[in-house]
Amino acid sequence: MATARRRSAGTARSNDRRAGVRHRGEPDPLAARVGGRIRQLRKAAEFTFDAFVEETKLGRGYLSELERGLVVPTIGTLARVARALEMTIADLVVGDTDRERLFDELRDAPSVAVRELRERVKAITSAAARRAR
Question: Closest by alpha carbon to 47, among 90, 58, 70, 73?
């Protein structure tokens, strides 16, 4: 039965490809979040859409769908976008947890400040672990 389900799912996918359906009609929630972040970072970097297309070497349609969450980007695509924005892939996919917000806030901090903060965090967590014992 599972084999039949797999075969029918595969057939549906291959029928979609033959019909020219390459991308989602509705945004994937995670892809939409990443795409929205990419758009936000692109605008913050003052890239026009066309300049960003040139810089990333991605197609206009693909980049538009990427920013709207209609395609799920590969690691290679994220690397191109990150390189164009002069940041890391991690910067593109940061979320809303406290850790991720801290990561985002530290993105533009000088390396010296990041190292100093890491040392402080180590001291705080060590002290907390000792108190917990």
Answer: 58
